[in-house]
Amino acid sequence: MTYSYNPNSETWWREGVFYQIYPRSFADSNGDGNGDLGGILAHLDHLNDGTPQSLGVDAIWLSPIYPSPFDDMGYDVSDYCDIHPMFGSLQDFDNLLRAAHQRNLRLLMDLVFNHTSYLHPWFQKSRSSRQNPKRDWYIWKDPSPRGKVPNNWQSVFGGSAWEWDEATQQYYYHMFLPQQPDLNWRNPAVREALYDVMRFWLERGVDGFRLDVVNAYFKDALFRDNPPRFGLRGYDRQKHLYDKDQPELLEVYAEMRQLLDSYPERMCVGEVMDGHPELNARYCGEGKLHLIFDFNFTRQPWHPAAFQNAVLRAEANLPPGGWPCYTLSNHDISRHLSRYGGRYPHERAKVAAAMLLTLRGTPFLYQGEEIGMRDGKIPYAMIQDPPGKRYYPFYKGRDPVRTPIPWDDSAGGGFTSGKPWLPLNSDYRQVNVAAQRDDPNSVFSFYRKLIWLRKDCPALRRGSFEPLIRRPSDGLAYLRRSEGQTILVALNFFALPATLRLDFDLPAQKWRTILGTHREADEEVALERTIQLSPHEVWLAEAI
Ligand code: GLC
Questions:
Q1: How many C-alpha atoms does 187 have within 13 Å on its Cβ side?
Q2: What pLDDT, on the 0 to 100 scale, is given for residue 9?
Q3: From CA 107, how far away is CA 485, in angstroms rounded?
Q4: Are residues 22 and 158 in the same domain?
Q5: Looking at the structure, do residues 219 and 133 belong to the same domain, yes or no?
Q6: Structure confidence by residue, pLDDT tens digits, 36-60
Q7: CA of residue 85 relative to chain centroid, distance
Q8: How far apart are CA 367 and CA 387, in angstroms?
Q9: Mean pLDDT of the chain
């Protein structure tokens, strides 16, 4: 079979499927219980071996692999231009990048530019004295006139965002842990140093970046107090008017975009804190960031109307040059099958995958969703994630979504020959890659079929999105249309047979099945204004 997807086109990031690797939990090649670069290299075939035997994704995003004390699991970087020895070396990284590129797999690094680790040499210098040239690289303030913290800003992970430094008698600002001081983006030298980090990785050949909390780089120049609002935890009890989303961001995005555009075929995707389509629209598109994650799906109940509304809202707010970017799960949020799976994890995994992979926009998968993983259970004594320790048992942190990938049903799940840093999920003997590889009805087989089909369908990769039901109640039906191809997607969200009544005329009467959970490929179906679906049926058909 020949595929029409051209991985070398300028728009690869609009058409390709992205896959997030959480390196510590992906695969361990040296038996220390922690995933590493060697483990990723050894499992590239799973991601894309050039045939439909593999998942077929087009790009991987690596969560941080830099040197770090791991106070926030690597999102606290102490050197932006090296690799943590637990993961390997720069040499290992180059080998991985070369091997990925040989398979047309692109690679994104995660840039955590809002803050560094307190162990970063920049901060060590900055805190060494008020006169140090790096002092102004971070955000230092005197106590308030009453001798207290400079203002009411809260840390996302709990408590005041200000930490007192005894030695130099000032506070520094940390949006996350005290071990994660925020950089001062108002200082041009800081900007230049961070752009140099981008150049360092671009020169090595990476294809782009995921930008961590990209809308928090600037804080209010006057350090005004945030107004209160109703919420449970400290951070949620304020309107964040002054500690993020400042107008200066746009200048930085323009500079970053220019830098990226000076290399061929590079891109970035931003994580916008508390993002929503109206806000994201400010930050992405021409001269700004290429993509911004739309996290709306992660907040929806399992109902077709909820998802359709989220899609319509995303579409309605797209700025010029913008492009939707959907995701169901990542390393910070409960896995979607734990949120929606209920009594039908298998079935819902397929409906959710079919939706994610056939909408107009760039889909991001999170490692493990392709085998239908759910959140693990982590006993208190084994919790590693700082907010998990702080808020247990009200919030158990993010370890449950970061448990190791089970590759098979052996003692270490094929993940490690040692003791995994977080326990394998209790169902790993059933839910693992090997068990699903040869099963044509597995969740994994379904993901690969969808992804390889998508490569061959211009309508799915770049066609228009046209919903066919105004107020969906049982399932979704929509068209994807490009020049020369029209594809119909019909999804039954529930466990009862459904008759989807369409509010619009279809552009064709006869449809040929191209993928379905309940119909054979090539089966021809005549349609008027209704579509009959079996429980949890996924049906994709092409107009003839
Ligand atoms: C982002 C990351 C999260 C991290 C935080 C602080 O939200 O996704 O894992 O804890 O930034 O860097």
A1: 15
A2: 81
A3: 30
A4: no
A5: no
A6: 999 999 999 999 999 999 999 999 9
A7: 25
A8: 22
A9: 97
| Alpha helix positions (H), 158-299 | 188-204, 249-261, 277-283
| Catalytic machinery residues | 212, 271
Range of the domain at 422: 12-116+188-453
Cβ(112) – ligand 1 distance below 6 Å: yes
Indicate if the pLDDT at residue 533 is higher than 80: yes
Q: Does the beta carbon of 220 lie inside 6 Å of ligand 1?
A: no
CA-to-CA distance for 60 and 206, rounded, in angstroms?
Answer: 11
Q: Which of 172, 168, 152, 169 is nearest to 160 (CA)?
A: 152
Looking at the structure, do residues 249 and 287 belong to the same domain, yes or no? yes
82-133 pLDDT, tens digit per residue, is: 999 999 999 999 999 999 999 999 999 999 999 999 999 999 999 999 999 9
Which mutation among 110, 332, 399 tests ligand 1's pocket best, with the greatest number of atoms within 8 A of CB?
332
Quick check: is 180 in a domain?
no
pLDDT of 379-421, one tens digit each?
A: 999 999 999 999 899 899 999 999 999 999 999 999 999 999 9
List residues bridging with 329 in a β-sheet. none
- 3-class SS at 272? coil
pTM for the whole structure: 0.98
Domain count for the chain? 3
Indicate which residue's Cα is closest to atom 12 of ligand 1. 75
Enclosing H/E stretch for 125: helix 121-126
Confidence band of 232 (pLDDT split at 50, 70, 90): confident
pLDDT confidence band for 1 (50 / 70 / 90)? very low
- Same domain for 328 and 408, yes or no, is yes
Q: 75 in ligand 1 pocket by Cβ < 6 Å?
A: yes
Report if residue 107 sits inside a domain.
yes
CA of 407 relative to ligand 1 center, distance in Å: 26
